[in-house]
Write a structure and sequence with these properties.
single chain; 186 residues; alpha+beta; Peptide Deformylase; five-stranded antiparallel sheet; two-stranded antiparallel ribbon; 3 helices; 34% helix; 23% strand; globular; binds ligand K1U; binds zinc ion
């Protein structure tokens, strides 16, 4: 198993539409293991492949409480087949937009069709946090972020903040690299 870095805003890969999984092979099983390790370490309750830079329609989730036994769930090629008319609001977070939380309104209940790791098809009905999280993760497979569901003003504000932070981090890295290069030269 390997823990991966989680890619964050404004990384353009977060806007990619992920490819369906054609064959569940050793590569997909390794990807799922790595995704669980990364998600538990973060910590988070869900993760989509693209968040570790893999544009495949693979989602992992675990909604178990802190000290309870893990309840890992793998959803391959998940699709929403039905959404309720009723909406529910939940304060969402995203491992790709660290330390930013906002209320998001989404359908209160959804039905989701997906394949498990054995390639078996399932259709489940989700409500509550499960419905919120599975919609958030399926959005990731389509290049959609939870900030796309909030006001433009809030979205622009948080996006600008992350662009500025990325530029500052870039400058710091190039300064450090420059110093190291000078030391090698000296
Ligand atoms: O996809 C992601 O970025 C993961 C995200 C899932 C999510 C959370 C809340 C609402 C919708 C979707 C997270 O896991 S953010 C972290 C988080 O919510 C959490 C972390 C530790 C314990 C409990 C929750
Ligand atoms: Zn997210």
């Amino acid at each position: 198993m390997a823990r991966h870095d989680i890619i964050t805003l404004p990384d353009k890969r977060l806007r990619l539409v992920s490819e369906p999984v054609k064959r569940i092979d050793a590569g997909i099983r390794k990807l799922v293991e790595d995704m669980f390790e990364t998600m538990y370490a973060a910590p988070g309750i869900g993760l989509a492949g693209i968040q570790i830079g893999v544009a495949k329609r693979v989602v992992v989730m675990d909604l178990s409480k802190k000290d309870d036994e893990h309840k890992p769930l793998v959803l391959i090629n998940p699709e929403i087949t039905w959404s309720s008319q009723e909406q529910a609001s939940y304060e969402e977070g995203c491992l790709s937009i660290p330390d930013y939380y906002e209320e998001v309104e989404r359908p209160e209940r959804v039905k989701v069709r997906y394949l498990d790791l054995d390639g078996k098809a399932h259709e489940i009905e989700a409500g509550g946090l499960f419905a919120t999280c599975v919609q958030h993760e399926i959005d990731h497979t389509n290049g959609v972020l939870f900030i796309d569901h909030i006001s433009r003003l809030k979205r622009d504000r948080v996006t600008k903040k992350f662009i500025k932070a990325a530029k500052t981090a870039d400058k710091t890295t190039s300064k450090t690299t420059d110093k190291t290069a000078k030391k090698v030269e000296a």
